[in-house]
Structures are given as C-alpha cells and as structure tokens.
Design goal:
By secondary structure, the protein is mainly α. About 60% of the residues lie in helices and about 5% in strands.
Length: about 160
C-alpha cells in the first residue's frame, strides 16, 4: 500500500510541476484515500478516514495542494526537493477550506472559504463550516453522520487502551 501512496504522490507532484492542477488534485486526494485506508484497515492506527480532507484536496488551492504533497513526500522519505521552490511562492497565499453545509444553505460560492476561519464540529471533528449559521442549518443532515463518527472514534479509543 505504501508503494501505491508513494506512486500517487509522485504523480501528483509531477502534475503540479507541469501546471496541471486539476490532475494533481485528483492524485493527491487518491493518495490521501489510500494512505487513510491503510491507517484504518491495515495498521489500525485511526478510527475512520477523514473524508472531508479528501474532498478538500480534490478541489484544493495551490497552497493546500503543495503543502500536502511536500509534507507527504518528506514523511515518506522520498529524496525530493522539487516542490520547495513552489512552496516558497505559495506559502503566503491563504489556504482554502470547504464548508460542509449544502449549497443552498451556504452563501459562499462552492462553499469555499479561508481555512483559518472555518469551524470544526466539536463532536465528531469531521465536518467544517464557514459560520455558525451554516452549522445550525446543516445539523439535521449532519446529526446521523456525526453520531456515527463520534461513536466509532469512542469505540476505537476504548479498544486502544
């Protein structure tokens, strides 16, 4: 599985360097999926995948994308500094996050907002919102998912002890 993740991250890095950001986003989100799949199902080091993070990577801005790829490549100990120069260029740009509130309730186009201003669901820590109003408007749809993730994480933590 490590090979698959490394391959997808390398492909994503190549696409960033070629300027093909849409494909780089796809490779990065797939790499994130397989990385998290291994953590949940093979290594048993995480209770559940972070689907919100994968969704965010799929439509990520340059700062988020380059930071993710650069961090993962360094963590995998792939001897590569090809993204260092690009990181210097994009690190001053704000990272963009996605509001989990459905389109009609969220007033932002595409639900995209600066990540530093997003708020995370305090119970499940899986859903991000651009405002308290979006969180309240989305609660009926999120409640079941929230309970599922909170229970899954509690069960995982009790098994780890």
């Amino acid at each position: 599985m490590s090979f698959v993740v490394s391959f997808l991250l390398a492909c994503g890095t190549n696409k960033v360097l070629e300027g093909n950001i849409k494909m780089a986003n796809k490779y990065a989100s797939l790499g994130s999926y397989f990385e998290q799949y291994a953590q949940v199902h093979l290594l048993n080091t995480r209770a559940c995948p972070k689907f919100g993070k994968m969704r965010e990577l799929y439509s990520a801005d340059m700062h988020t994308l380059v930071s993710f790829l650069r961090k993962r490549i360094l963590r995998k100990r792939i001897p590569c500094s090809c993204l260092d120069e690009m990181y210097k260029e994009v690190k001053s740009l704000p990272k963009i996050g996605l509001c989990c509130s459905p389109e009609p309730e969220c007033p932002l186009p595409g639900g995209m907002t600066e990540r530093s201003s997003t708020m995370c669901c305090s119970r499940c820590r899986e859903a991000n919102y651009c405002s308290r109003e979006c969180q309240v408007a989305s609660w009926q749809g999120h409640k079941g998912e929230c309970t599922f993730y909170a229970d899954l994480k509690a069960r995982f933590e009790s098994e780890q002890e």
